[in-house]
Prior knowledge:
The structure holds two protein chains of two kinds. Chain A has helices spanning 26-62, 67-74, 77-117, 124-139, 142-155, 165-191, 194-202, 207-237, 249-260, 264-295. Chain A is mainly α. In chain B, the strands form two sheets. Chain B has a six-stranded mixed β-sheet, sandwiched between helices. Chain B has a four-stranded antiparallel β-sheet with strand order 2-1-4-5, with helices on one face. In chain B, strand 1 and strand 2 (29-39) form a beta hairpin. The longest helix of chain B is centred in the C-terminal third of the chain and has 16 residues, at 184-199. Chain B is globular. The model of chain B is unreliable at 1-7 (pLDDT under 50). Classes of the chains: A mainly alpha, B alpha/beta. Magnesium ion binds at residues 55-56, 176-177, 207 of chain B.
Amino acid sequence: xxxAKEEPDRGEPLAPGGQDPYVPSxxxxxRERYKRTRSxxxxxxxxxxxxxxxxxxxxxxxxxxxxxxxRETFFDAGYAREALPLVLDGLWLNVRLLLVCGxxxxxxxxxxxxxxxxxxxxFFPLRALAAxxxxxxxxxxxxxxxxxxxxxxxALRLQGVSVDPVLLGGTALTLTxxxxxxxxxxxGIESVHPSQRAAARSLGxxxxxxxxxxxxxxxxxxxxxxxxxxxxxxxxxxxxVSIGGAVDAVRAADIIVGRSLNxxxxxVAGLLFIALTIPMTRLTDWVTARTDRRRAxxxxx
Amino acid sequence: xxxxxGGPDTADPGPVLRMRSVRxxxxxxxxxxxxxxxxxxxxxxxxxxxxxxxxSTLLRCANLLEEIDDGAIWLDGEEITDPRVDQDAVRRRIxxxxxxYNLFPHxxxxxxxxxxxxxxxxxxxxxxxxxxxxxLERLGLGAKADAYPDRLSxxxxxxxxxxxxxxxxxxxxxxxxxxxxxxPELVAEVLEVVRDxxxxxxxxVLATHEMAFARDIADQVCFLDAGVVLERGSAEQIFHAPRExxxxxxxxxxxxxGRL
Lengths: 301, 260
Ligand SMILES: Nc1ncnc2c1ncn2[C@@H]1O[C@H](COP(=O)(O)OP(=O)(O)O)[C@@H](O)[C@H]1O
Ligand SMILES: [Mg+2]
């Protein structure tokens, strides 16, 4: 063979211990010194302004005319302590709902999205069905969906159909969210350039193999940020299963509030939900930033 | 060489690819009309012609990426435009390299190359990877096996795309303006690869605007004009004694700008 010529690589890192007699110039050092000072100053300014804003907010709230009443009904340490274990117990149900519904939503959403992109007249009914499904459940307010499923289904008194509010609530959440997620997946599938599919088919891959190995991996990768976003929403909305009487974190707080007429348990539940969402939100931010970085490769702006 | 890409010779090798009266329309526009083509084993056919004359469409039809309206196409004597034929099986025997490389961006170079051997031909992973690395080594890309396509230069990407097409040991290789997207200094490294494939006996059909290259490498040259093969002949004949006025006019643009 005549072609075995490896070209020298430009732009690879220097070999460790390579003899590069480079000494940073005075100009570079000055530039870096300046950048360091500038970023230190920026951090200081940001910290100070955050502090001032927080202080101002606290002053406004504390000096509000109804503050003493509000503090009693919303910020009562005694009730918070009483509520915490019960609300935490309830929260465990929210977490389990998130895990189970999240998995179901991803699978169902993917199936619907794929059904919508199947080519050919044979699949027309499937495509139409999938389109109708997404249109319906994306338009239907979640709260109405929940009421219909959680309250309406048991009223039918069907033999062999569960009346468990957790199961029914989870079903309703899955129905709505799989419609959202299907649209996210579909947008991802359509964003993969047709030439990718053509390249796959030209290698002899079947339509299915092209979808599985070439189109879907790229579609999913691109859609990770919006998917995580929907999962964060789902996590919050698991609180809505309480309308059927399932004792989740919200319902647990509700029970104590009903007995004590003090609203602190709601605050406890709310804070716990936030605490639960924060890791996921941060993960979303991190993934988004990483994707953006990869896309912006080769440029600082 | 044991893995001669053209496969073992038989006693009377008919044409690898044969097209008869192929017609192709896109809606109202007639893109290929009465196209005949014969490609003998171990030969190179160059398709030349203005942009929009139908070169890409012809190659896509040959690979069944487009369905023809009329006429017929045979691969090794088997009619592949018969609706009963397994199209995926046909595509497996034909390699395609596109102008825009079309590497899979979510896979490393080696994964790009081993995808079809593993998933389509059922070659075990280790074996597919070993052969993939060998091919990359041969085309001077040994060090890039584990890199992702976006870290490669255009020339390297195109050579990787050629390796990907070769990895399934195709009977026929279709090359669609594979240097058109490359910076001038990278064109040579890709053309070098094609030259080498010809030496190994690969049967190829290539659409190209590199006239000097087509003249050097092609056994047969077809000049397409508005969807018709207006003139065909040896490279010698087409480039030095074109019969048709339109061919002359097309080629004059290249001679005038010193590219031929
Ligand atoms: N998918 C398509 N739909 C409609 N028209 C197309 C399509 N592909 C190609 N064409 C048309 O067919 C003609 C030939 O195109 P093409 O085969 O790409 O020419 P070439 O490769 O010689 O530049 C052009 O007029 C082009 O606009
Ligand atoms: Mg073209």
